Amino acid sequence: MRKRVLIMRRGSSEILYEVIGQDLQEADLGCAYLDNADLAAVDLSGGHLIAASLERADMTGALLRGTDLRNAHLAAALLVEADLSGAHLAEADMQGAVLWGANMARANLEDAILRGADLRGADLSHANLDGADLTGANLEGANLMSADLRHADLTDASLSNANLTAALYSPFSERFPTRWPRGFNSGECGAVIAEA
To answer: Which of 35, 59, 177, 178 is most buried, judging by how many CB atoms fall within 10 Å of its CB?
Structure first.
């Protein structure tokens, strides 16, 4: 059965796309209103979803490789095993999003809001998390190898079994230092101090 989704511009009754099927590669959906949409397994690779609203959307298994999601609203979105590798998520609001096993390798999450997000088993290797808010996020078993955690806030985050080998962090900074969970020893996890 092929799914049918109507995509509208936020604050308007204008229909941008009527999607029948699974392929939206390189679609321009900037400012689109997609709250609660069923986009499971849809291919949005290389698309432009700048400032799109995707709150509570089901994007389980979606392909979002290299997609531009800057300033997008993804609060409580379901992104289980989604492929967000190389995606641009700077300043995206992903509070409470579920990203179990998601591929976010080399994604740009600079200043993204990931408070309370569930990132268990996610691949964040080489991801840019500079300034990201990961307060209370669950990163159990996540791969953060060579991730940029400068200025990131990991207060109350769960990092058990997370791979932080060669992850960059800033213990001292004019902006603010990397904030680790209480009692966490950054010196024992393999993370590396970023050069000024």
So the answer is: 59
